[in-house]
Design brief:
Blueprint lengths: L4 H9 L4 E10 L9 E4 L5 E3 L7 H12 L5 E5 L16 E9 L7 H10 L3 E8 L7 E4 L4 E3 L4 H17 L3 E5 L10 E8 L4 E5 L3 H12 L3 E6 L15 E4 L2 H6 L8 E4 L4 H11 L6 E4 L3 H13 L4 H4 L2 E2 L11 H17 L20
Parallel strand pairs: 11-12, 11-14, 12-13, 14-15, 15-16
Antiparallel strand pairs: 1-2, 1-5, 2-3, 4-5, 6-7, 6-10, 7-8, 9-10
């Protein structure tokens, strides 16, 4: 959804109705996560995807019908053994898709949501998918305000509280309530889609490898900062547009920077005077991934210095070094792919092995 919002924002600002299809539930080997979106706008223009191609034709027709004035629809698509040409998922999974029309009259908060996501402001969108409440009704929830309604004041209050909790976690998924927001009831299903600010990638060491890592980090949706103590190397012209470049001692910069459980830290300096104080700071704070470049000999010497600096075995075990997966990478771009592959594998619990050597589902259930 985040990727298609700029286009949807333009349609919305122009007052053009469009059909918005959102994946609200998946099972087994589904190709996309909840929150994946596809929209059909003016002149049959299509943006986004809900299944990677399996059911897009059927969803296109549904979105057209709904955009032309139809009621919101909830449809489930799965695999059919009886008819190989039937609409369905060839991967064997199942997805449930909510298709609704979006206009300023139907969804007064949509434009504000688009603006907030563009500005990096956290917001959750709650949408009724099933039950006695109006299907497709939407409520936008920010940490300090709301816009829209799900059709009942009690339901709005309960969903607002849950939406703020999910927003703090960056979580997306279905919740169930009674008609007036009663807990432990499941008459009304509401899809909560959180738009937390993009996670951060902090790259230390403004070398040629850093430019490649920064580029792939930006591609993966991270907000990337490159930091180096040497101003001659820490110059914006050496890095992709949109990447923040900071000339400061790495450990001092990190000490004054907030990190969380989604933050990625890549240490590419492989110089003890930078690495040891920087990693001492990094390994004692929240982060999803902390990787450091260097040979196995460099890693062993670095680990010894970190232990002498007082880091525990538990803290040292968080360090991914040498950084990246074993791809035989040589060039900066290949090394960046190796690093990105390790980050993605760690994020989703992947093994890093070739799929031909595994027997697990290609699209396994995502960890919570």
């Amino acid at each position: 959804m985040r990727d298609v919002l700029p286009v949807l924002g333009r349609w919305y600002a122009a007052g053009v109705p469009f059909g918005l299809a959102t994946v609200v539930e998946v099972s087994r080997s589904a190709p996309r996560d909840p929150g994946a979106a596809m929209a059909v706008g003016p002149d049959e223009e299509v943006v986004g995807s809900v299944s990677g191609g399996c059911v897009e034709g059927a969803v296109f027709e549904l979105a057209q019908e709904v955009a032309e004035g139809g009621e919101a629809r909830l449809e489930t698509f799965g695999y059919s053994d009886e008819d190989a040409f039937a609409v369905g998922l060839t991967c064997g999974g199942e997805i449930t898709v909510l298709v609704r029309a979006v206009t300023p009259g139907r969804d007064p908060g949509f434009g504000a949501v688009v603006d907030s996501v563009a500005a990096g402001e956290p917001v959750t969108v709650a949408t009724v998918t099933d039950g006695p409440a109006p299907r497709g009704a939407a409520l936008a929830v920010w940490p300090d305000r709301t816009l829209g309604t799900l059709g009942a004041s009690g339901l709005d209050v309960a969903v607002t509280a849950d939406a703020r909790g999910e927003l703090a976690l960056g979580a997306t998924g279905l919740r169930h309530y009674g008609p007036e927001g009663q807990r432990r009831e499941d008459a009304v299903s509401v899809f909560l889609q959180s738009f937390a600010p993009p996670p951060r990638m902090l790259v230390f060491g403004a070398i040629d490898y850093a430019a490649a890592v920064a580029r792939i980090g930006d591609f993966l949706g991270y907000r990337v900062t490159v930091c180096d103590a040497r101003p001659v190397f820490a110059t914006p012209r050496r890095f992709p547009e949109g990447v923040e470049v900071v000339a400061q001692w790495p450990h001092r910069y990190l000490r004054g920077t907030d990190t969380d459980e989604r933050t990625v830290i890549c240490v590419l300096t492989h110089d003890p005077k930078f690495d040891v104080p920087l990693l001492t700071e990094a390994l004692r704070r929240p982060a999803a991934y902390i990787g450091a470049m260097g040979s196995r000999r460099t890693h062993a010497e670095r680990a010894e210095r970190l232990a002498e600096a007082g880091l525990t075995e538990s803290e040292l075990s968080r360090l991914r070094s040498p950084v990246g997966l074993d791809l035989g990478a040589r060039t900066p771009e290949e090394v960046a792919v190796s690093v990105a592959a390790e980050i993605v594998a760690l994020r989703w619990g992947g093994s890093g092995a070739p799929l031909t050597a595994t027997e697990v589902a290609v699209h396994p259930r995502r960890p919570s």
